[in-house]
Amino acid sequence: MERPSLEINLPDTHEEGKLYVVDSLNNLNKLNVCPDGSQHALDEEENTGGTGENTAGSNIRNQCLFFVTFILTLIVSLALVSFVIFLIIQTRNKMDQISSRLISEKKTIEELKKMNNMILKHLNQSGIKE
């Protein structure tokens, strides 16, 4: 008493139907599990047969994008550092100018004080009294 297998008498169209159902379930699973961006990557992987050809190209593209971004960041950082150094030098020059002005003004004020003291001494000696 052998049990007849259901698989023996199935025509080819039934096998294709099973494959269609399995593909539909896989697509439904991808839609439920994967976000929109990764669904595109999965579809491309199916088109390449899952051999990884697309992922290698994607990795190279990502690496190039990373290096371009890194180099641009370095250039912008270098420009900013150069600008800050330029501003520091300019500020130092202005501070030196202000310092020299203050020193010359201080000397002028001291000379005016000396002249004032000399005038007061001369007036006191000349006998002008109120």
From TrEMBL:
Alphabetically ordered keywords of this record: Membrane, Transmembrane, Transmembrane helix
Name of this chain's protein: LSME1 protein
UniProt keyword Transmembrane present: yes
Bilayer-crossing regions: 65-89
UniProt keyword Ribonucleoprotein present: no
InterPro entries per record: DUF4577
